[in-house]
Design goal:
- With 321 residues, the protein is mainly α.
- It has a single domain, classed as Na+/H+ antiporter like fold (Up-down Bundle), CATH 1.20.1530.
- Helix content is 75%, strand content 0%.
Length: 321
């Protein structure tokens, strides 16, 4: 038990150290805010799709049938439930927790409801459950679809009509669809070697780039928050993000699938803190950045302790090695 705890904690700390490099780069002005949008677009539209494409076409265990998309369905469902529960809690109880305004409640719902499903989850999956990485990528397609439908509605009040093109034409989704079709029609052998090598090399850059950029964005908002108010927000955010939602996801993993790799994916998702990207969406749609920053930073720091707990407890619950 102690060895597993040490291994898990070490992997988690390593991920956050990469984010710390991003914060230091911002502090020393090696990474300026002007390039954030370009680097985020490069990561989302090029590097991540390359990672997804290469891992799927080279993974012999992934089925190309419809059941290959079930992880995406559960990714959507878990995100829908997370955002819905968090936003409902903010609207119902928010007045007593420093969330009196509609922008604060919308921001709370989005930020608390969406886990850090990519930049932290992927490196942890590589360390503890390498065989589930492709399943995690397919799962994350569903999370992305929920982010740009349920999440967009929550933060902006705009529904699916405002985002369907972004969902359908999402480069990660297109990369997954293309890779699955290639496997379905036995076309992997026809993929040119240079393309496979290029997507592999570009894909390897995706997670480090995302972590560095996340650290830089978090650094930007240091000092904007009133911590007297922050503690009130966190007294609602932490129980939901770090306790209730993990139990909901583990329950779905218990009764929603028999696949060991999908159980592993859901275990990792259950252990995650709040995602950093909602800070960007909150800034874009002029909602309450202070609430988003407080939730993301606090849950990320707390996750240094809670990720090992949930990984060990959840593995025992689900019967995983």
């Amino acid at each position: 038990m102690s060895d597993r705890w040490i291994d898990t904690a070490s992997a988690v700390v390593g991920v956050f150290l990469v984010m710390g490099v991003g914060g230091l780069a911002r502090h020393w002005r090696w990474l300026s805010p002007e390039v954030d949008r370009s680097l985020a677009s490069l990561t989302s539209y090029v590097l991540m799709p390359c990672l997804f494409f290469h891992r799927i076409i080279t993974d012999a265990s992934l089925s190309a049938d419809l059941d290959a998309w079930y992880p995406a369905v559960l990714g959507y469902v878990c995100t829908f439930l997370g955002v819905g529960m968090a936003w409902s809690a903010a609207r119902t109880f928010g007045g007593g927790f420093g969330l009196a305004s509609d922008p604060e409640q919308r921001t709370f719902g989005l930020t608390v409801g969406i886990p850090n499903y990519g930049y932290i989850a992927l490196p942890l999956a590589e360390v503890f459950y390498p065989s589930c990485v492709v399943t995690l990528m397919v799962h994350n397609v569903g999370v992305d679809m929920a982010l740009w439908s349920v999440g967009l509605y929550t933060i902006s009040g705009k529904g699916i009509d405002a985002s369907w093109r972004r969902i359908v034409l999402s480069p990660p989704l297109l990369a997954v669809v293309l890779a699955v079709l290639i496997k379905r029609f036995d076309g992997v052998a026809w993929v040119p070697g240079p393309i496979e090598q290029a997507t592999q090399k570009l894909g390897l850059c995706s997670v480090p780039m995302g972590l560095v950029l996340s650290g830089a964005i978090l650094y930007d908002y240091i000092g904007i928050s009133s911590w007297a108010k922050a503690w009130r927000i966190l007294s609602l955010a932490i129980p939901i993000r770090m306790m209730i939602l993990p139990l909901v996801i583990l329950a779905i993993a218990t009764w929603g699938t028999d696949s060991e790799s999908l159980k592993q994916v859901l275990l990792i998702q259950a252990a995650m803190p709040a995602a950093t990207f909602p800070i960007v969406m909150t800034r874009l749609y002029e909602q309450d950045v202070q609430t988003a920053w407080v939730v993301v930073v606090a849950t990320s720091l707390l996750s240094l302790l809670t990720i090992p707990v949930w990984m060990i407890f959840g593995a025992a619950w689900l019967g995983l090695g």
